[in-house]
Amino acid sequence: MTSGERSATRHRRERMVELLGTGDISVHDLAAEFDVSLSTVRRDLATLAALGRITRTYGGAVDHRAVERSWHDKEGEQRGEKAALARTAAALVRPGDVVLLDAGTTVARLAHELRERADLTIVTNGLSALVELADAEVEVVVLGGRLRRPNESLLGTRTDQALRRLTPDIAFLGVDGLDPRRGINCPDPEQAALKETMAECARAAWVLADHSKLGGGGSGGAGFPYWAAMPAGTGLISGAGERELAAFTDEGWSVCAAVDGGPAPAGSARPHTS
C-alpha cells in the first residue's frame, strides 16, 4: 500500500467514525457512501472496533462515543431518586471514616450530603464532588491525575498509584451501566481499571445506581465495550424494583434499596470487600 493509499484509508475511516456518530449505519450504506466494496467496509469497521473507536452491531456499527454524555447532560436526570440514593449512602458513613468518592452525578449528591461531616476525610477523583466540598468543613484529599472528559474525572498512573497507598473505610462508585455478573459498564478501559482498583482497595465498596443504570447498558440502553469487575460482596444502593435488585442479590451483591424522603435505617450493614 502506497502512502497515498494509506492516507485515503485513514481519511475514510475517520469519516466513518463521524458518520457513525449520528446513529446506527449499515455496511451497505457505508459501502455506497465511500464507493468501496463490502469487504473493504468490513475490514475498516473491524479495525475501528479493535481500536475502541466504534461498537459493531448486526449488519453495521455505531460510534460508542456518541452515547457517553457529559456530567452536565446527566445532572438533571432522576433527581429525586439520586437524592434518595445519596441520603441512603450517607447513613452508611461512620464518624472518623476515610471515604472514597468516585466521579459522577449521583456521587456528587452524596458529597453534598457529607458537607457538614467534619469528622470525615474524603478522598476523590471527581471534579463534581470537589465543587460540592470546596467550602465544606470536611477534610478533602484530591487524587491527582489526568482530567478525563466528558465525565470530569481524574485518572491515570498517578491516580492509580495514589489509590494503592490507601485503604479507605468505605468507597462509593458511580456507574453508566451495571450488570450483576459483569460489573460496571464503562466507555474507557482506563476508567474500568480505576473503578476496579477503587473497589479492591476499600474495606467496603458500594455502587450507587439509579434504576435506569441496571442491566449493563446504561441510560437509554446503549452499552459500552468495557467492564469493571466488582469484588464479591460489593454493595448496591438503587431505587430499582424488586425484580431488578433480586438479580444482584442472586449474584452475591449486598443490596440496599434507596430510602426516599429520609436516611437509611441506622446501623445498616456494610459489605466487606477486603
Automatic annotation (TrEMBL):
Organism field: Streptomyces mooreae
Name the UniProt record assigns to this protein: DeoR/GlpR family DNA-binding transcription regulator
Keywords: DNA-binding, Transcription, Transcription regulation
Flavoprotein among keywords: no
InterPro entries: Carb_Metab_HTH_regulators, DeoR-like_C, DeoR_HTH, NagB/RpiA_transferase-like, Tscrpt_reg_HTH_DeoR_CS, WH-like_DNA-bd_sf, WH_DNA-bd_sf
Annotated ranges, domain HTH deoR-type: 8-63
SUPFAM superfamilies (alphabetical): NagB/RpiA/CoA transferase-like (SSF100950), Winged helix' DNA-binding domain (SSF46785)
Molecular functions per Gene Ontology: DNA binding
Record-linked Pfam families: DeoRC, HTH_DeoR
